[in-house]
Amino acid sequence: MKNLRRSHDYGRRGSAPAPFTVAEVEAMVAAGVMDEDERVELIGGSWFPCRRREANTRRSRARSSTAGFARPKDCRLTQETTFRLSEDTYLEPDIVIYPRATGLRGPTGANVLLVVEISDSSQRYDMGRKAALYASFGVRELWVIDAARLAARVFRDPAPDGYCEAGDIGAAPCAAFRAGSVCASAR
Question: Are residues 12 and 40 in the same domain?
């Protein structure tokens, strides 16, 4: 994935690669140019490498603590998905919870109920730039779970420049997601 540019940019001195769109990335995957499991995020048309999803004990423990999320039947939980936020931006969250009625391709920043990032080495990025991106797209709640401590930083009340509310919760509340109240408020 390093130095991947469109063919018309090769050989031009000082030329920056043209930004990519989500549709172009999907076409590259379909054509076999890019692995379906390639770990990148597209932000404003630029590539950013993601951490590798490994069989990490801490991440597995954190994921299993979120697997028991109690959620109403009208909500869907999707793990390790490509979350398309705009024509030129997609992120790779660990968990996305959204109304079932939106369908698998329907989640947007405005209708997603909760995004969960499980961090073992990317907390600074997840709580900084990535949180600001989610807020700018209107994701109403973001949890960044520390895989080592099984504690979370919860972000709520999105605004164009970031979340207005953030707070820490300990390990015990991480397993008890309040999806019922979140889903009810989405109606």
Answer: yes
Is residue 153 domain-resident?
A: yes
Residue 126 is assigned to a structural domain of this protein: yes
In the chain, the amino acid numbered 141 is E
149 and 59 within one domain = yes
Number of compact structural domains in the chain: 2
Instruction: Let me know whether 122 and 138 are in one domain.
Output: yes
HSE-CB at 46 with a 13 A cutoff on CA atoms is 4
Q: What is the pLDDT along the chain (187 residues), one digit of tens a residue?
A: 444 444 344 444 555 667 888 888 888 888 888 887 777 888 888 878 776 555 453 455 455 445 555 566 788 888 887 888 888 888 889 899 998 888 767 788 888 999 999 888 888 889 999 999 999 999 999 999 988 888 899 999 999 999 999 999 876 544 444 444 444 444 4
Q: Do 36 and 83 belong to one domain?
A: no
Instruction: Give strand pairing partners of 41.
Output: 48
pTM (predicted TM-score): 0.73
Q: Are 42 and 114 found together in one domain?
A: no
